[in-house]
Amino acid sequence: MQYDPIKRSLGKVFNQSPVTRKLFYSLLDLLLLRTWHVKKAFSNWAKTAPQNPNILDAGMGFGQYSWFMSQKLPLAKIKGVDVKDEQVADCNLFFKQVGHSNAVFEIADLTQFVEKDKYDFVLSVDVMEHIEEDVQVFKNLYASMKTGGMLLISTPSDQGGSDVHHHDHDHHHNDGSQSFIDEHVRDGYGIEDIKSKLKMAGFSQSEAHYSYGTPGKISWKLSMKYPILMLNVSKIFFVLLPFYYILVFPFALILNYFDVAGKHSTGTGLIVKAWK
To answer: Is the dihedral of CA 182, 188, 192, 193 positive or negative?
Structure first.
């Protein structure tokens, strides 16, 4: 199931003006369950955040989390980095158009990115499953954080996470020439696996819990998997999507709520926090 071409075409559709991009962000916020989990964790951190925090959005993609954080904490200084130059350009343009000068975006490879002792909060959403040298990235993020800073990661778990979060991928591993690839380089993390890698990188304290439990898995199939399968068959389904979502959306929202509110003994996603 190929997500990236659809992501690109959606990006083009919604990138036409600041209004359509904000609409795009709102749709992602509602539909993507991981956004619910990330926003909850960030909002909890923000309650006791330093007054003018430095924030790193490590692999910011479309920039919807940078947008959320810049609104939640207007005095924060946010930097988003990504290897995809068109996404960096899009985000810089959008934030300039809406007059938000508290976020900047740069092209960077996280296996080489270090800004010593700078960040109070680092966010990494759907990034680590694409990078072979994950411990090196954790070391770089640790070095880039201030003492007392928090790292928040959302990534697929090893409980079947690849299907829920991205697409069925062939198991070609990264050859080292490119740190970010469309395929996942691992099927997901076990809780103890990612915690031990964070410890190797220097993080003395971490915690992790499953997301995408039973309610989340059903919600994801209804709101993401089936529509994308339809769009892979034919672009004509774009016309039918609004009607499909009118029917499905209320159920997906209720299921998302239960996934965020509940504790799951297993799940296809992980929410991980680590402190320096």
So the answer is: negative
Burial class (CB in 10 A: 0-12, 13-18, 19+), 123: buried
CB 133 within 8 A of CB 160: no
Q: What is the pTM of this model?
A: 0.85
Helix, strand or coil, per DSSP, at residue 236: coil
Q: Residue 79 pairs with which residues in a beta bridge? A: 56, 104
201-221 burial, b at 16+ Cβ within 10 Å, e below that, comes to bebeebebbbbbbebbbbbbb
Residue 263, class by beta-carbon neighbours within 10 Å (0-12 exposed, 13-18 middle, 19+ buried)? Answer: exposed
| 233 bridge partner residues | none
> CA-based diameter of the chain, in Å?
52
Query: Which one, of 244, 223, 265, lies nearest residue 33 by Cα?
Result: 223
**So where are the chain's domains?**
4-212+269-275
Sheet holding 269-275, edge to edge: 103-107, 77-82, 54-58, 119-125, 145-156, 269-275, 205-211
CATH number belonging to domain 4-212+269-275? 3.40.50.150
Looking from the CA of 6 toward its CB, the CA atoms found within 13 Å total: 18
Residues in the chain: 276
Reduce the DSSP state of residue 28 to 3 states and report it: helix
Model pLDDT for residues 100-124, shown as the tens digit of each residue? 889 999 999 999 999 999 999 999 9
22: which strand partners?
Answer: none
Q: What is the mean pLDDT of residues 39-63?
A: 95
Instruction: Name which residue leads in pLDDT, 3 or 54.
Output: 54
pLDDT value at residue 8: 65
